[in-house]
């Protein structure tokens, strides 16, 4: 790729974004036509992650069809082989024995047939009886974005790598009927098997502003019929992308196969809302005879509802890992820098660390935790215990690589009496965090970690808690605030935040942060509330990055216990 062509493309981008910013910007992928096939001249390593899933270069988005098959984990993902912006999308393919070290294979699916000539978009894997994996994915069949659902099968099922996939000629399996909007009809789920001998799957859609999960049934997986009613819909939520529907056990942390329907379980329906670009879920009951899903009255059905992650996390997908009897969640974290930055650095997008997901003992939300295999990357370790932090204190955690680390800390409070009053009109955690950042001193909190911090705190990404007193309970706010993360211009620097539904009777709060150069992925209260931030420090890079614990509340806070590790690099898509 010659420099001249590259510079021309950059110029085109600047002009194009000017036009875009003046016009109406659609929620979906912005299309930078001129940049879609501009191959990376070189790959800038400054902000590349050390242990998160990334290809060697170029653009990635949604995780697709994760599965465990014959002792190997497979991950497919939306990938642009020709550039660092969205476009030319194929299903890239990697395999692993531990979901931490990855080997890159050739793309599994790419546009080639009339039923996917204009795009091979997201989808899922179902493992049919006899251990036969089958991919369902969305194909784009014309320049007008008409969407159909296709399938693909391994060319050689005895190849454990499943390198080659065939797209048979009886595709597409499903096309939009008259009353379905064919340009808002995509992302088939993993199918589940009903006792009545029918397979079922969901496809995301919308009608006007109503989000819809269409339900399809089939006896043989080839002939699919749309059921009269969607499994669920919700007004004013816009397009439902990447639906995910699965059972969770009422007891314990084990996962359930997607086809399990039993008394001792609940169902989860997750949708990715194209309008807000966040992933929301509800817990509820699935009635197989009526093929209806009814959310519990304890969960909010809409965009003030529960989220897997209150930060940069979208288009997620789970799968049942039969190897370890757990359900694993993959999600995409896009960049927070500009498209011009992405083109210049030659890459964009990462997958978050795979998380085990299960139902909280309170039955009202899910809990997530990084898979245990991540701990194999832990290297040099430092610890701290019984350290008191008064208001304004910050202590440095020295002796590890602060730009690439795993930190686990438990804070304890001697009293909650100084908690600030909670105003019941504060519904939006992110707004609250942007008003009450780490430098706004409080009663109980803010306290937590200052990650990716420069030595004199010119740059830092604080991850912290703040406790409020509502009428009859305490309210815990968790923030991951990118406001002061970087001097770089043009970045998206939100004060991501969520509330933490935690019992404070032991007056303890725990936090785990996975810090990886341009990502801080945090788990509050054992994984009840998770927040991922993408940040691009200019000073706090490599060995100039520091890590601190801090308290800026008038109530002293004690670090009961803190362990931090330098994280080693896995083999990543070599
Ligand atoms: C795309 O849409 C335009 C405008 O509605 C129509 O004229 C054209 O025939 C469509 N093309 C295809 C391939 O469907
Ligand atoms: C169908 O969906 C597309 C894409 O979101 C939208 O632009 C169009 O207005 C929708 N059509 C109808 C009839 O609602
Ligand atoms: C919520 O549902 C439960 C049973 O599932 C019921 O006992 C309770 O009264 C309901 N609460 C509200 C506010 O509707
Ligand atoms: C604590 O608050 C003070 C006053 O706003 C501020 O100057 C200081 O930087 C804060 N400390 C930390 C570690 O954020
Ligand atoms: C990630 O990038 C930021 C900044 O450009 C946008 O605001 C988000 O909408 C986008 N998220 C997704 C899921 O595309």
Automatic annotation (TrEMBL):
<dbReference type="Pfam" id="PF00251">
    <property type="entry name" value="Glyco_hydro_32N"/>
</dbReference>
<dbReference type="InterPro" id="IPR023296">
    <property type="entry name" value="Glyco_hydro_beta-prop_sf"/>
</dbReference>
<dbReference type="InterPro" id="IPR050551">
    <property type="entry name" value="Fructan_Metab_Enzymes"/>
</dbReference>
<keyword id="KW-0326">Glycosidase</keyword>
<comment type="similarity">
    <text>Belongs to the glycosyl hydrolase 32 family.</text>
</comment>
<feature type="domain" description="Glycosyl hydrolase family 32 C-terminal">
    <location>
        <begin position="373"/>
        <end position="566"/>
    </location>
</feature>
<dbReference type="InterPro" id="IPR018053">
    <property type="entry name" value="Glyco_hydro_32_AS"/>
</dbReference>
<dbReference type="InterPro" id="IPR013148">
    <property type="entry name" value="Glyco_hydro_32_N"/>
</dbReference>
<dbReference type="InterPro" id="IPR013189">
    <property type="entry name" value="Glyco_hydro_32_C"/>
</dbReference>
<dbReference type="GO" id="GO:0004553">
    <property type="term" value="F:hydrolase activity, hydrolyzing O-glycosyl compounds"/>
</dbReference>
<keyword id="KW-0732">Signal</keyword>
<dbReference type="Pfam" id="PF08244">
    <property type="entry name" value="Glyco_hydro_32C"/>
</dbReference>
<feature type="domain" description="Glycosyl hydrolase family 32 N-terminal">
    <location>
        <begin position="52"/>
        <end position="370"/>
    </location>
</feature>
<protein>
    <recommendedName>
        <fullName>Beta-fructofuranosidase</fullName>
    </recommendedName>
</protein>
<dbReference type="GO" id="GO:0005975">
    <property type="term" value="P:carbohydrate metabolic process"/>
</dbReference>
<dbReference type="InterPro" id="IPR013320">
    <property type="entry name" value="ConA-like_dom_sf"/>
</dbReference>
<feature type="signal peptide">
    <location>
        <begin position="1"/>
        <end position="27"/>
    </location>
</feature>
<dbReference type="InterPro" id="IPR001362">
    <property type="entry name" value="Glyco_hydro_32"/>
</dbReference>
<keyword id="KW-0378">Hydrolase</keyword>
């Amino acid at each position: 790729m010659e420099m001249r062509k590259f510079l021309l493309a950059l110029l085109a981008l600047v002009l194009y974004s000017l036009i875009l910013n003046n016009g109406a910007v659609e929620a979906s992928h912005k299309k930078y036509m001129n940049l879609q096939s501009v191959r990376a001249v070189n790959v800038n390593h400054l902000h590349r992650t050390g242990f998160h899933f990334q290809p060697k270069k170029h653009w990635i988005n949604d995780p697709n069809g994760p599965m465990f098959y014959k002792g190997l984990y497979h991950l497919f993902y939306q990938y642009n082989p020709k550039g660092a912006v969205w476009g030319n999308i194929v299903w890239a393919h990697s395999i692993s024995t531990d979901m931490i070290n990855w080997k890159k294979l050739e793309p599994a699916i790419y546009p080639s047939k009339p039923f996917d000539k204009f795009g091979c978009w997201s989808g899922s894997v179902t493992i049919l009886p006899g251990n036969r994996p089958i991919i369902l994915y969305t194909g784009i069949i014309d320049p007008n974005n008409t969407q159909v659902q296709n399938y693909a099968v391994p060319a050689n099922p005895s190849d454990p790598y499943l390198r080659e996939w065939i797209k048979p000629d009886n595709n597409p399996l499903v096309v939009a009927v008259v009353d379905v909007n064919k340009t808002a009809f995509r992302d088939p789920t993993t199918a589940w098997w009903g006792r009545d001998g029918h397979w079922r799957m969901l496809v995301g859609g919308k009608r006007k502003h109503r989000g819809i999960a269409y339900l399809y049934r089939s006896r043989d997986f080839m002939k699919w019929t749309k059921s009269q009613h969607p499994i669920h819909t919700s007004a004013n939520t816009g397009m439902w992308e990447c639906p995910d529907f699965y059972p969770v056990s009422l007891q314990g942390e084990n996962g359930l196969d997607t086809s399990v329907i039993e008394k001792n379980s609940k169902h989860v329906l997750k949708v990715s809302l194209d309008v807000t670009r966040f992933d929301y879920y509800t817990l509820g009951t699935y009635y197989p005879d009526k093929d209806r899903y009814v959310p519990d009255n304890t969960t909010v059905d809409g965009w003030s509802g529960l989220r897997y992650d209150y930060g940069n996390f979208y288009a997620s997908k789970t799968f049942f890992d039969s190897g370890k009897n757990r359900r694993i969640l993959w999600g995409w974290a896009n960049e927070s820098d500009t498209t011009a930055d992405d083109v210049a650095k030659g890459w964009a997008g990462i997958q978050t660390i795979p998380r085990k997901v299960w139902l909280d003992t309170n039955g009202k939300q899910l809990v997530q935790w990084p898979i245990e295999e991540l701990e194999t990357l832990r290297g040099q370790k430092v610890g701290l215990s019984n350290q008191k932090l008064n208001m304004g204190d910050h202590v440095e955690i020295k002796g590890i690589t602060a730009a690439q680390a795993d930190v686990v800390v438990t804070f304890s409070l001697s009293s909650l009496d100084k908690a600030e009053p909670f105003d019941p009109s504060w519904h939006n955690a992110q707004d609250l965090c942007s008003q009450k950042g780490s430098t706004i001193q409080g009663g109980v909190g803010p306290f937590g970690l200052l990650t990716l911090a420069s030595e004199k705190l010119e740059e830092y990404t604080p991850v912290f808690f703040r406790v409020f007193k509502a009428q009859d309970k305490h309210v815990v706010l968790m923030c991951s605030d990118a406001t002061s993360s970087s001097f770089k211009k043009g970045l998206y620097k939100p004060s991501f935040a969520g509330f933490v539904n935690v019992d404070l009777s032991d007056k303890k709060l725990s936090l785990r942060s996975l810090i990886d150069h341009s990502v801080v992925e945090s788990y509050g209260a054992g994984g009840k509330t998770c927040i991922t931030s993408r940040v691009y420090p200019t000073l706090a890079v490599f060995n100039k990055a520091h890590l601190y614990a801090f308290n800026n509340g008038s109530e002293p806070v004690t670090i009961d216990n803190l362990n931090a590790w330098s994280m080693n690099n896995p083999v990543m898509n070599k």
